[in-house]
Every structure is written in C-alpha cells, then in structure tokens.
Amino acid sequence: METTNQAFVQSSTADNITTITFFHPQSNSLPGIILNALADEITKEGKNDKSAVIVLQSAGNKSFCAGASFDELLQIEDEKNGLEFFSGFAKVINAMRLCPKFIIARIQGKCVGGGVGLAASADYAIAVNTAEVKLSELAVGIGPFVVGPAVQRKIGLSAFSSLAIDATNWRSAQWAYEKGLFAELHESIEKVDESVANIAKTLSGSNPQAMEDLKKICWEGTENWDKLLPERAAISGRLILSDFSRKSIEKFKAKK
C-alpha cells in the first residue's frame, strides 16, 4: 500500500464494503487530529446506507499503530489539554462501539498502546503472525486507562492485567490470538488480505438488521462507556503532566 508523508484518514466504499484507512508518518501514531478524524469517519460510515460492513486499516507495511503521539503528549500543558487529547481515544472507541455495522480490523504489524485499543474495539481482527502487541503506557508514567475497558472486554482481566503491568515487553501475535484479541492469524499479509476480503464479502451480503442486532448483543454491558471513558481520559490527562512522564517520554524519543 503506497503512502505519502502526510497524515490522513480516508474512506472508500465499493460493493457494500467501506474501507477506512489512517496513516501517520511516525509508525501510524495517533495525534489528536487523527483520533478525531477517525471517530468522525467511523460515525459517518456507520450511517452510510451504501455500506454493510467496515474494514479498518492503517497504511504502509510496518506498524499497524504506534499509539499516542509522543510529540503531542509533550505539548500538553494542563489537565484541560490532557483531557482533550485522551478524550480522542475515548471518542474513537465509543464510535466503534456504537457503530451499527461490524468493523473488521486488518492488522499488518505491531500494535502499541492505543493501537491495541483499536484492535480490541474492532468486532473482528485479522492479523499477520508478526503483529506483536504491547501496552506501554505505564512505562511513560500513565496507564492504559482509556483503552483498558476495550482490551479487558476482549481478552479478560487476567490477560489485560499482565499486558498493562508488564509495559516494556512485547507479547507475540500468537499470544494475542490465544487470548482472543485477534480472531485470525495468518503467515503473510497476502493471506490476511485474502481473509479480510472474504469475510467482508460474506458480511456485505448478510442481513443488515441481523448484524446490527448481533453487534448490540456482543457489546452488552458497555452502555456506561460514554461516561466511563472520558473519566479515564481525565486520569491520563492528569498523570501526563508529571515530571516522571515528561522525562520518560523524552527518553523514549531519544532512543528512536
């Protein structure tokens, strides 16, 4: 998949299948502008009568998503700014949750932090077998507070706890598959694309109302997330202002 050096979120619809693609030159990281655009696009396409299913993917052939933008984290000056930034993750997760259509995630590479949250919030994630995962938030002085409910819902409290606490080590794609984060695992990106195309085609011909009703059942128990996730965003927004977080992020940036 070819890319430019400019960040973007774009969508296209064909044969009742909508594909939403996001890109950022820093390993598909998620600054506020990308988060808000993703949430808006998912919400809009959820209302698109010409589409029956959504495929969510990132551009390029390396990382699926590197999570929060370190550059933007360092620009946060107060709790209000912090809440606003982390609320972007809440908006995306809630948009995916409330979207009446199934969302298939195409995972072509590593998922970090918010990237794990995107994979967990998809209704069906198909990954290549090199797609390692890591919740690195604790290592930079915060925690996976906003994405935590989505990840815990998908893989359970025990697996989420181990992923959140061991914030510096990668878990293999096989681990993510066994825990239920990934619904399918394939040996090549070509096989991933083939599987994504097959299930999207099948769903595009399924009963839209039946799929919407099934999705509601799958997301039962999350009705309080409109309130919960912004509350979690406020925790991260406060913690990111600490000297610990600032120094930790600077160290991470220096390693790159």
Overall outline: globular
Low-confidence stretches: none
Could you estimate the helical fraction of the residues in percent?
40-55%
At the fourth level of CATH, the homologous superfamily is: 2-enoyl-CoA Hydratase, Chain A, domain 1
Describe this structure in words.
There is one protein chain. The chain is an alpha/beta fold. The protein has a single domain (8-204), classed as 2-enoyl-CoA Hydratase, Chain A, domain 1 (Alpha-Beta Complex). The strands form three sheets. A six-stranded mixed sheet has the order 1-2-4-6-8-10, sandwiched between helices. The longest helix is centred in the middle third of the chain and has 20 residues, at 79-98. It is 50% helix and 16% strand. The protein starts with 7 loop residues before the first strand and ends with a helix.
List key phrases describing it:
single chain; 256 residues; alpha/beta; 11 helices; 16% strand
Quick description:
Helices cover 50% and strands 16% of the residues.
Question: What is the fold's blueprint, element by element?
Answer:
Blueprint: E1 8-14, E2 17-23, E3 29-30, H1 32-46, E4 53-58, E5 67-68, H2 70-74, H3 79-98, E6 103-107, E7 111-112, H4 114-121, E8 124-128, E9 133-134, H5 148-155, H6 157-165, H7 173-179, E10 184-186, H8 189-204, H9 208-218, H10 225-239, H11 243-255
Parallel strand pairs: 2-4, 3-5, 4-6, 6-8, 7-9, 8-10
Antiparallel strand pairs: 1-2
